[in-house]
């Protein structure tokens, strides 16, 4: 780390570009997607007659004299990801790659000249905010509805790239859009599935959200057995190929009458069991974390939670308030009704130390 005297020029209020000392950042706010590379554009000027001895970026800006300005390129959290693209004359641009939410911070460029105490920090700095993506979708829709899915980020992305949508991990090529929304004009039952979104040219993909599409019965058919002549006293079976509510209607030339409805309830074992973790980004000790289990079954399933095979508890939602690193590991939920059971895939929860 550099021990340096902070010059009077250091505070923005006392900063005098007319004297030829300046650092400009453009843009001064960057909203970047998790895992991406960020370019922080920067230029600097100084009066003639000075020679630049050292240039570096730092995360701290001190108000005290005789302070230490830690050089980011010496910080193990940054050194392998930080590349100085500028020069020792006027360009102080850097690239930071594989950004994570932990990199959300203000960054400053600092340079040191050959003349004693002529050092300068660009006090305005660049603010970096790193975001992930979340799909917002209605949980249930009915066939024929118009459905809008939104790919949300916590800040307006600086890189205005194209959004890509996936259903069940397959890209929906026909629906690339500059806009962060996916519009399903008249939703079909085949549109049900797990939706996620990403930015074109980026590796990060949002967690998936399940969209279920409900639909009315279609092509109902009824059969009577035995077919042919039925004699008084025979047993007759009427069968219908669909679930739901049934009525019979009897009619003669004098009129018709409906029976009361009977409900046919088709039960099935759990399917599509999956776990989602909220928040989806990096989880730090002390955070509140919610694990949710979703599954499709009739009758509704009972859910139980397991961490590496050890039973944790029951219920669709498993809440952990004030998480600690002991909670890191693989989680699964099991959904069970009287017809069967289905385990979710294991999901990894990693808790970062503070
Ligand atoms: C600074 O250097 C970067 C990387 O070489 C370059 O892309 C950028 O255009 C330069 N900026 C100026 C103002 O010269």
Automatic annotation (TrEMBL):
Coiled coil, from the record: none
Domain Ig-like: 128-212, 270-350
InterPro entries listed in its UniProt record: Ig-like_dom, Ig-like_dom_sf, Ig-like_fold, Ig_CD22, Ig_sub, Ig_sub2, Immunoglobulin_dom
SMART domains: IG, IGc2
Keywords from the UniProt entry: Immunoglobulin domain
Pfam families: ig (PF00047), Ig_2 (PF13895), Ig_CD22 (PF24518)
Top-level lineage group: Eukaryota
Cited Gene3D superfamilies: Immunoglobulins
Physiological role: Most highly expressed siglec (sialic acid-binding immunoglobulin-like lectin) on B-cells that plays a role in various aspects of B-cell biology including differentiation, antigen presentation, and trafficking to bone marrow. Binds to alpha 2,6-linked sialic acid residues of surface molecules such as CD22 itself, CD45 and IgM in a cis configuration. Can also bind to ligands on other cells as an adhesion molecule in a trans configuration.
Subunit structure: Predominantly monomer of isoform CD22-beta. Also found as heterodimer of isoform CD22-beta and a shorter isoform. Interacts with PTPN6/SHP-1, LYN, SYK, PIK3R1/PIK3R2 and PLCG1 upon phosphorylation. Interacts with GRB2, INPP5D and SHC1 upon phosphorylation. May form a complex with INPP5D/SHIP, GRB2 and SHC1.
Name under which the protein is recorded: B-cell receptor CD22
Lineage: Eukaryota, Metazoa, Chordata, Craniata, Vertebrata
């Amino acid at each position: 780390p550099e021990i340096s005297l902070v010059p009077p020029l250091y505070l923005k209020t006392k900063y005098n570009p007319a004297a030829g000392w300046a650092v400009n950042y453009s843009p001064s706010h960057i909203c970047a997607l998790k895992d991406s590379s960020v370019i922080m554009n920067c230029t600097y000027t100084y009066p003639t007659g000075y020679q630049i001895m050292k240039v570096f970026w730092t995360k701290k800006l001190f108000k005290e004299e005789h302070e230490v300005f830690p050089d980011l390129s010496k910080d193990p959290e940054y050194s392998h990801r930080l590349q100085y693209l500028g020069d020792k004359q006027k360009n102080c641009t850097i690239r930071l790659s594989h950004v994570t939410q932990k990199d959300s911070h203000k960054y400053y460029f600092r340079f040191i000249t050959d003349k004693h105490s002529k050092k300068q920090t660009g006090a305005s700095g660049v603010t970096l905010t790193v975001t992930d993506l979340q799909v917002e979708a209605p949980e249930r829709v009915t066939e024929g509805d118009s459905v809008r899915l939104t790919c949300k980020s916590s800040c307006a992305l600086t890189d205005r790239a194209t959004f890509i949508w996936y259903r069940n991990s397959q890209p929906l090529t026909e629906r690339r859009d500059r806009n962060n929304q996916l519009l399903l004009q008249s939703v079909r039952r085949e549109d049900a599935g797990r939706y996620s979104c990403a930015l074109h040219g980026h590796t990060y993909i949002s967690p998936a959200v399940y969209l279920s599409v409900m639909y009315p019965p279609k092509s109902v058919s009824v059969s009577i057995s035995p077919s042919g002549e039925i004699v008084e006293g025979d047993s007759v079976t009427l069968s219908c190929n669909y679930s739901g509510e049934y009525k019979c209607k009897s009619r003669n030339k004098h009129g018709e009458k409906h029976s009361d409805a009977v409900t046919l309830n088709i039960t099935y074992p759990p399917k599509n069991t999956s776990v989602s973790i909220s928040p989806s980004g990096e989880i730090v000790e002390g955070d509140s974390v919610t694990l949710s289990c979703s599954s499709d079954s009739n009758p509704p399933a009972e859910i139980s939670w397991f961490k590496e095979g050890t039973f944790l508890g029951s219920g669709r939602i498993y809440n952990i308030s004030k998480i600690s690193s002991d909670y890191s590991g693989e989680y699964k939920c099991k959904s069970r009704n009287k017809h069967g059971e289905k385990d979710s895939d294991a999901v990894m929860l990693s808790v970062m130390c503070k």
